[in-house]
Backbone:
């Protein structure tokens, strides 16, 4: 749903309700999307998985969900956010139940296949960005996309609740609960959500739109930056339970609680990044984020003692990543040319998801179980290097939002 297809809107009736429903749908989608990652210790124990194999399992939903965002973003331009939100939520239900079946049968292959299909839940983000952008004028899109982006708090919900639900009610009932919540929210969306006034369905074929958007420099600049900041968040949120088990010997509930805290810090920081981007510009927000990621990532690599030292470091890193995600997508909502918000946001959000796909694989493959300290030194060093490269890229190759907006309109 391209924001440009809707007439510019001021504060009109329905903005708050639709933004709330979109954010709720995102929370539930992210909760389901992280169903496997948050129970990584459970799978590693019951299936006797190595760190590398576990990395493949937790990364599978990320990979499919990321690529699916490209198509879903374009479909949102054509069919609208109400229809696509409902579709994504309903389509996720059988995949969650299939994960439950695979785990109950102790079948790695079936859980892996289910994880592939579970990727549909991750496409919810590509629906929401064009949907909420259409409800708000350009000057407030940083706020709108930032609030919607806080829906990634579903990651925190999954990390905190899933291990506890498994412990209290069992593995299969936990997934049934998730499936029921998905169904309830899908009903709420279908009956109470509305597309923005003035929105019109895009009649352009999807493939030419994707090709056209891929020719824009702004698309690839935002793809790279979002792959770093959102990819960093996704990779930490999905792999952190495993990391905390290996480095700090936390049990699943303790690791889940700390992962939830990490995700929550990023969730709180994301809308702040969007609002600040509206006020002072995205560039300074993204630069601040990348500086924070580089510094705090270096401190994480030193394996500070838990929890007094490590806690603030991890929370600071999460906040830096969240700030950056808000800043980058404020750029996307403002700089996307007329009629292309959905398509570009789909491509950019896909890049962000893919940015979170590879780090868990790298962390698993470079993990050194025989080392007394710094077992994940290589993977964390690559994070720091990537943040520094992105920092230099923004300084030298990304123009200020105002200048780049002018270029995009030409």
Residues:
């Amino acid at each position: 749903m391209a924001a440009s297809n809707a007439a510019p809107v001021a504060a009109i009736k329905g903005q708050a309700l639709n933004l709330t429903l979109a954010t709720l749908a995102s929370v539930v989608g992210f909760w389901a999307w992280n169903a496997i990652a948050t129970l990584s210790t459970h799978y590693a124990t019951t299936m006797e998985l190595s760190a590398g194999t576990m990395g493949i399992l937790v990364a599978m939903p990320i990979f499919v969900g990321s690529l699916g965002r490209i198509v879903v973003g374009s479909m949102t331009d054509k069919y609208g956010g109400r229809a696509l939100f409902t579709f994504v939520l309903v389509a996720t239900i059988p995949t969650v139940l299939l994960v439950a079946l695979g785990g109950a049968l102790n079948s790695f292959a079936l859980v892996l296949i289910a994880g592939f299909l579970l990727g549909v839940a991750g496409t919810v983000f590509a629906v929401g960005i064009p949907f909420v952008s259409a409800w708000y004028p350009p000057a407030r899109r940083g706020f709108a996309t930032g609030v919607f982006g806080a829906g990634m708090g579903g990651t925190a919900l999954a990390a905190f609740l899933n291990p506890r639900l498994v412990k209290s009610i069992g593995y299969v009932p936990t997934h049934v609960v998730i499936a029921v919540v998905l169904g309830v929210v899908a009903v709420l969306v279908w009956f109470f959500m509305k597309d923005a006034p003035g929105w019109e369905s895009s009649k352009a074929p999807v493939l030419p739109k994707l090709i056209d958007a891929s020719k824009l420099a702004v698309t690839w600049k935002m793809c790279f930056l979002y792959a770093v900041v959102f990819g960093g968040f996704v990779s930490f949120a999905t792999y952190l339970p495993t990391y905390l088990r290996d480095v700090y010997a936390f049990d699943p509930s303790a690791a889940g609680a700390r992962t939830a805290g990490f995700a929550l810090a990023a969730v709180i920081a994301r809308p702040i990044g969007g609002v600040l981007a509206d006020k002072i510009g995205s560039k300074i927000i993204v630069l601040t984020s990348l500086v924070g990621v580089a510094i705090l990532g270096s401190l994480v690599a030193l394996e500070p003692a838990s929890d007094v030292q490590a806690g603030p470091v991890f929370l600071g890193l999460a906040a830096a990543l969240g700030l950056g995600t808000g800043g980058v997508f404020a750029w996307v909502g403002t700089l996307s040319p007329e009629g292309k918000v959905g398509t570009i946001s789909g491509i950019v959000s896909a890049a962000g998801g893919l940015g979170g796909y590879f780090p868990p694989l790298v962390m698993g493959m470079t993990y050194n179980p025989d080392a007394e300290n710094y077992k994940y030194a290589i993977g964390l060093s690559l994070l720091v290097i990537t943040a520094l490269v992105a920092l230099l890229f923004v300084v030298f190759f990304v123009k200020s939002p105002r200048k780049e907006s002018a270029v995009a309109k030409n």
About this structure: The CA atoms of residues 287 and 394 lie 7 Å apart. The domain at 11-208+215-409 is CATH 1.20.1250.20 (Growth Hormone; Chain: A;).
